[in-house]
């Protein structure tokens, strides 16, 4: 059975299944910058992203598949140039990959639903957060759904 993209998004938002698309489909639905970051593991320039300094209450979703990833209550100002969170909405919303590019070892964070690159997670940096983790996420990888009435 083949699902339409709209049906896939609806199912994902409800917590059902994975989103799988061809590279041609991803290119057609994402802007060039979104495609570069989400599908080619690129990085947007620091301090240029839409959500770097945003304090709006709401849920941050994967821009590629609309899966809920982070809540604004876990966002904090790390002064790093990208939106930072101390934890995902739930551990099953993201997956982790060892990233040895750029001559160092980091932990890449990907959307568990559509396998899009979101950013990286760092630990032991001394932030006064409940987890001592910093999920450094590209704004272009996210869309913010504000809380109603906020």
From TrEMBL:
Residues 23-147 form the MsrB domain. Its EC number is 1.8.4.12. GO terms for biological process: protein repair; response to oxidative stress. GO terms for cellular component: cytoplasm. It is an enzyme of class 1 (oxidoreductase). Keywords: Metal-binding, Oxidoreductase, Zinc. SUPFAM superfamilies: Mss4-like. Its cofactor is Zn(2+). Gene3D superfamilies: Peptide methionine sulfoxide reductase. InterPro entries: Met_Sox_Rdtase_MsrB, Met_Sox_Rdtase_MsrB_dom, Mss4-like_sf. One of its GO terms (molecular function) is metal ion binding. Pfam families: SelR. It catalyses: L-methionyl-[protein] + [thioredoxin]-disulfide + H2O = L-methionyl-(R)-S-oxide-[protein] + [thioredoxin]-dithiol. This is peptide-methionine (R)-S-oxide reductase. The gene is msrB.
């Amino acid at each position: 059975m083949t699902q339409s993209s709209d049906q896939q998004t609806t199912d994902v938002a409800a917590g059902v299944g994975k989103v799988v698309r061809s590279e041609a489909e991803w290119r057609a639905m994402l802007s060039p910058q979104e495609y570069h970051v989400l599908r080619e593991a690129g990085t947007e320039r620091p301090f240029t992203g839409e959500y770097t300094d945003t304090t709006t209450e709401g849920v941050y979703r994967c821009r590629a598949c609309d899966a809920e990833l982070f809540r604004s209550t876990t966002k904090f100002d790390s002064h790093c140039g990208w939106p930072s969170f101390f934890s995902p909405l739930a551990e099953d919303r993201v997956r982790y990959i060892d990233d040895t590019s750029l001559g160092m070892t980091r932990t890449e964070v990907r959307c568990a639903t559509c396998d899009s690159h979101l950013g990286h997670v760092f630990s032991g940096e001394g932030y006064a957060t409940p987890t001592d983790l910093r999920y450094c996420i590209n704004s272009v990888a996210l869309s913010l759904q504000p809380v109603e009435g906020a």
